[in-house]
Automatic annotation (TrEMBL):
Species: Neobittarella massiliensis (ex Bilen et al. 2018)
Taxonomic placement: Bacteria, Bacillati, Bacillota, Clostridia, Eubacteriales
InterPro entries xref list: DUF1867 (IPR015074), Pyrv_Knase_C (IPR015795), Pyrv_Knase_C_sf (IPR036918)
Positions of the Pyruvate kinase C-terminal domain: 12-157
Entries under SUPFAM superfamilies matching the protein: PK C-terminal domain-like
Protein name as it appears in the record: Pyruvate kinase C-terminal domain-containing protein
Length: 187
């Protein structure tokens, strides 16, 4: 599926595709990126274990998390696992590149994945973050869901690597993503 719009517009269809694929292929885990809980509502009671991955404290505002604590608790009450972690494809390197200039290896990986879509980068990154945190099993294919800005517009089947072995990650199938020409027009 190629979307003609980015972000929230494709969230419901991305969720449907991700859930259907997981069930058809016997995949036990879905990882979704979310900072507000919006995307998670489309995965509630879907019959597959879902891990919501959100940013580490201090990622946007020092001492704070982008996900409201009441939202985090509601997600847990609704049966979601919630993983809070530093970005696997930037974290410390972004501090160095911001202060000293240049681009470093993890950022090169991220920008390479952007050639598919921003969501593809998010999928690989959040899967590694969830694996690092023990929320998904090592050595199994999962469905990962990410997006551009808000909502979800990309879903992939992948076998994630840990952050320390990120290059071992393997995208097995791209299920949906936005048309790159749309991204250029909306940028």
């Amino acid at each position: 599926m190629i979307f003609t719009k980015i972000g929230k517009a494709g969230t419901e269809e991305t969720a449907r595709i991700a859930i259907q694929t997981a069930k058809e292929r016997g995949i036990r885990h879905i990882v979704i990126a979310s900072s507000t809980g919006y995307t998670a509502q489309y995965f509630k009671n879907c019959g597959v274990q879902v891990t919501v991955v959100t940013l580490a404290y201090g990622s946007r505002k020092l001492g704070q998390n982008v996900m409201d604590e009441t939202v985090r608790q509601q997600l847990k009450d609704d049966g979601f696992a919630v993983c809070t972690a530093a970005h696997a494809l930037s974290a410390g390197e972004r501090s160095i590149s911001t202060d000293a200039g240049g681009m470093y290896p993890l950022e090169l990986i991220a920008h390479t994945l952007y050639m598919l879509s921003q969501g593809a980068k998010v999928c690989v990154e959040c899967a590694a973050m969830a694996l690092d945190g023990g929320h998904i099993p090592y050595g199994e294919d999962i469905v990962a869901v990410g997006g551009t800005g808000h909502g979800a517009d990309t879903a992939v089947v992948l076998r994630p690597g840990y952050s320390k072995t990120i290059l071992k990650s393997s995208i097995k199938d791209v299920l949906c993503l936005p048309d790159k020409s749309v991204l250029r027009e909306e940028a």
